[in-house]
Amino acid sequence: xxxxxxxxxxxxxxxxxxxxxxxxxxxxxxxxxxxxxxxxxxxxxxxxxxxxxxxxxxxxxxxxxxxxxxxxxxxxxxxxxxxxxxxxxxxxxxxxxxxxxxxxxxxxxxxxxxxxxxxxxxxxxxxxxxxxxxxxxxxxxxxxxxxxxxxxxxxxxxxxxxxxxxxxxxxxxxxxxxxxxxxxxxxxxxxxxxxxxxxxxxxxxxxxxxxxxxxxxxxxxxxxxxxxxxxxxxxxxxxxxxxxxxxxxxxxxxxxxxxxxxxxxxxxxxxxxxxxxxxxxxxxxxxxxxxxxxxxxxxxxxxxxxxxxxxxxxxxxxxxxxxxxxxxxxxxxxxxxxxxxxxxxxxxxxxxxxxxxxxxxxxxxxxxxxxxxxxxxxxxxxxxxxxxxxxxxx
Length: 394
Ligand code: SDX
What we know:
The chain is mostly helical and 394 residues long. The chain contains 17 helices and five strands.
């Protein structure tokens, strides 16, 4: 089993888990959801259909998809008391701080779907999380700008509803651009699940203690916020802006190679992929499409990103260490072109990944042994010693 660690006293513990949801072949740069490759799902499917696939294991029939979409659409509203929860935050709070707080608080508002021993409550909690995340994330965005909340509408699709809740204002109607909605939906799909990454492992660990679903997903969102994980798309765009022009790229590549310099190329490298992240390939193509749509031509940030990728991939250091662009390398460029500030990049990642967290949470609960994820340690601290009174200490 992967992740088997043998400790000195002959102690063996496994910190792996078996899963049927997502498979990554790091050497090939392949990502499968229930056996279907991500590039085909990104091209031919849509986010809610991928949600169904991740949750239930098979692509839905037309009738199953209609029923699932109806249930998600009709759970997109938040308990109206929750808006007072939002209003308790400072206006300049990072949207992730608000989102993690609100997600954790959901167990206080939806306590009728917190009993993890009841399969029906588990199902309701799953639908509620997927349905309400666009509203939570959009309201965190609106609140951070001092703008009124926009309520979801049932006549819009999942991505279009989110865009409207983010960019509409009461003073004028917002027409959802279908190409923008398609690009948004594709970003959701590409971030939906990714095997046992740090945030998903956090959710599994929390769920193995029997914590309620909203608490488990909030724990995952808190972990995703880290700059080495879900925060990397924000960090990558800041890096591309700092580089500024293609003539400065060699300076930053040299820094990334310098062992004494803590600088790393954000959006590059991966714990598992030792080939190009297949999601990065789709996002690179999508970046051109979205920027053209937004009338943004010769975007300097995209030019720097493409030239940086080219020079890094030609550099023996990155080739030898098998460092390639990951999902975060181009996603920030697209989201910025769509009108989102960098502070909204990780929240959109969390929105997309909620179905992955929920699917893995349900799978962890279905584990008959409910193995408590409790990795052992290799103790290297002080040996046994008796207490020393303060008068006798040196
Ligand atoms: C995500 O796991 C997931 O699935 C996560 C994710 C998901 O969808 O959930 O894919 C999302 O988190 C993608 C990763 C986003 N993070 C970044 O882009 C931040 C920059 N990347 C790194 O911090 C780093 O690449 C990690 C943390 C992602 C992986 O680090 P590792 O495990 O150290 O990578 P590695 O073992 O492959 O590194 C090999 C070598 C090391 O040098 P040596 O110790 O061998 O001398 O390459 C170096 C690393 O120091 N290295 C880099 C580098 N990433 C690794 N050097 C320069 N720039 C980089 N980006």
